[in-house]
Each structure stands twice: as structure tokens, then as C-alpha cells.
Amino acid sequence: xxxxxxxxxxxxxxxxxxxxxxxxxxxxxxxxxxxxxxxxxxxxxxxxxxxxxxxxxxxxxxxxxxxxxxxxxxxxxxxxxxxxxxxxxxxxxxxxxxxxxxxxxxxxxxxxxxxxxxxxxxxxxxxxxxxxxxxxxxxxxxxxxxxxxxxxxxxxxxxxxxxxxxxxxxxxxxxxxxxxxxxxxxxxxxxxxxxxxxxxxxxxxxxxxxxxxxxxxxxxxxxxxxxxxxxxxxxxxxxxxxxxxxxxxxxxxxxxxxxxxxxxxxxxxxxxxxxxxxxxxxxxxxxxxxxxxxxxxxxxxxxxxxxxxxxxxxxxxxxxxxxxxxxxxxxxxxxxxxxxxxxxxxxxxxxxxxxxxxxxxxxxxxxxxxxxxxxxxxxxxxxxxxxxxxxxxxxxxxxxxxxxxxxxx
Length: 409
Ligand code: GLC
Prior knowledge:
alpha/beta; Immunoglobulin-like; 2 domains; 16 strands
């Protein structure tokens, strides 16, 4: 049996990566009212299943998804291999409700895996435990056989995913909640202990999220950026549009702005966590313009400022009202979201000697002056922010960043 590497070893690439692409894609892209449409509109199973006869994404090209993720500066991807509707994008031997066995006749998971690997992306699989097609899901006490069959299916399919597609880097479970069952019984209901042990036997390097009823490796704050305690891996997942839908919603005018998205990514990195930003491709397989343009703009920023994000650590001092800070080794990175207009910026409580200060966007050096009460002034900075949304000033220090306590005279 293969050896499971330590938590730190398994988490290494994930901490380096910091930024990933989530993809919610399936039959629900056709009605385009989000991935919960079947449940919310109470569409009968057989009626919803008709969509599988239409789902034939003529313009799907996994390489173009990978190219976009790369352009954004992302290092990994997580695809919905099967969402709550039960439709598999992969070739399952235990279900006929799959893309390869219906109109598309293609294993999209295989195409995705191959493209992601070729593009140097780490590969994640989203998989929903629950499947709305099983009456036993809604009434596990009254319909135990159906509930059992659903659990069996999950075990079989996760095993398929872990054996048929080579090395998988992240198993992103979801849909672990069970109606009329207390949260502390979910893991037992799904047989998560047994399943996850099997997964680790098959994929010793894998990271498993906390949505099987067990904590496993990663916390998954949803639609907000909230750090876990130091030492614990976490990843904030978020939609670009309204928070109610991850799958394609045709008219969804309330998209987050590029500065909001950059600030979210930076805030995650400042807490030593990751940002998994979602795309909901259309039913033809293409990614909408609103998502593409935002990802490209983030990528432009990442090209100059990525070193403040990849492999980031927590910085013991912040940047006050003007922004926040990340750290790495002997460097601190001040992320200035709200650029001061006076030609100088003030940060406080830096204990280290500052060897140099550089604006990453332009490479320009900045003068550093100390003042009383542990103040540091970065002088002679341009009046116009070198980057409109987040200008990063890299401080090269004499050691790992350390903070003083506030001083007041
Ligand atoms: C929720 C939703 C689901 C979405 C997921 C992403 O659990 O049920 O639709 O896939 O969040 O985190």
C-alpha cells in the first residue's frame, strides 16, 4: 500500500497556487437559471432528464478553458463531474445518465483532465454526494432502499473518478447535507470514513475538502473570504455574479467588479488561503464574456504582482486603512487598494529593518523614512496609483516580517 505523505507535503502545491478556477457546468446550462433549477422549480426527474437529449456542446474545448485559467494566473481547476441533478460529465459504469451515453457522446471529464494536465494545471473534481433523482434522498427513513442505492452510487462513482483519470489533486465534495438528519450523522450516512480511506489509498497525494461530513484537509467558506486558524488549509469559493447561482444564468447583471475580485484574491492570500473563482460556461461549452474579461484583467495584474500572491504567508503587520499585506520569506508586500494622494504612504509597527521598497507594477524604488511611534513613510510615490486597483509595494526586510506593538506618545 502506498504511503500517504504528511499534511504539509500534500498541501505544499496548494499553498503555492493560491488561485484556482471552479467550473459549474452541466445540463442546467440549457435552461440557464442556475444549477438548482431542477429542485427549485420542482421539475420532475423524467422531464429534466430530457435535457440530456439536447446537451451536445458543439463549441466545448477544454483547452480554451485551461488557456483562460492560465491567463488569469490560476494554477488549478475544479470541475463539476456530477452535480446534485445526478448527470455525469464522465463515463460512469453504474449510470446511464452520463454525457458519453447521451447526446454529446463525449467524456468531458477526460477531455478536461487531459487539457488541464497538458497546461500544467492541478486537477480537481467536484462531486455531489446527493442526487435529487433518488426519492430516498428526501425520505431516507421511509425509503431506505433508495437511500442505500444513492449511497452505493456515490461510492462507486467516486471510486471510478479516482481510478480512471490518473492522478487527481483535489476531491471537492459537496451536497453532503441530508434532510431530516442531524449534521453530525451525515458522515455516517454517506460512509464517508470508509470512502475517504479508499480515496487516499488510490490517490495518496490528494487533498479532500470538508464536505463529506468530516473535516479532512480543507475548509471551504462559500461566497465569503474568511480565514481558518493558522496551519489549516482553506479555500474560499465564489461566483462572479449573484451568489444564488453557480451554473450559467443568462441574464445576471450584478457581476462583481475587477477591483472587488482582486481584493478578494488578495484577502485570501493574506490569510494564507486560496481563492476558487467560479465560471458557469454556457450550454455550448463557451465561457461568457463577463467572466472572460474579468479573468483577463486579474491576469494582467497577476503578471506584475503575482509574487505577492503565490506561496503567500500571513504578515504580522497590516497596511491600515489603505489596504492589507501579504508576506513571503524576508519580504512583506503592502497591497494598497486605496492609494493616498499626498505622494507618501504611512504604515506602522514594522519591527524589521527595511532594506528596500519597490513598486512591483513599475519596478520603481521608493524612499523609506522612519518617524516616531513606529511609523514608516514611503516617500516620493506617484500621485496617481501605478495600478488603479491594487498597487503592491514590496518591502525587503532583514528577516521574516515582525510587528512591534503600537506606540503612542
Ligand atoms: C452549494 C450549492 C452548489 C454549489 C456549491 C459550491 O453547496 O448547493 O450548487 O455547487 O455550493 O460551493
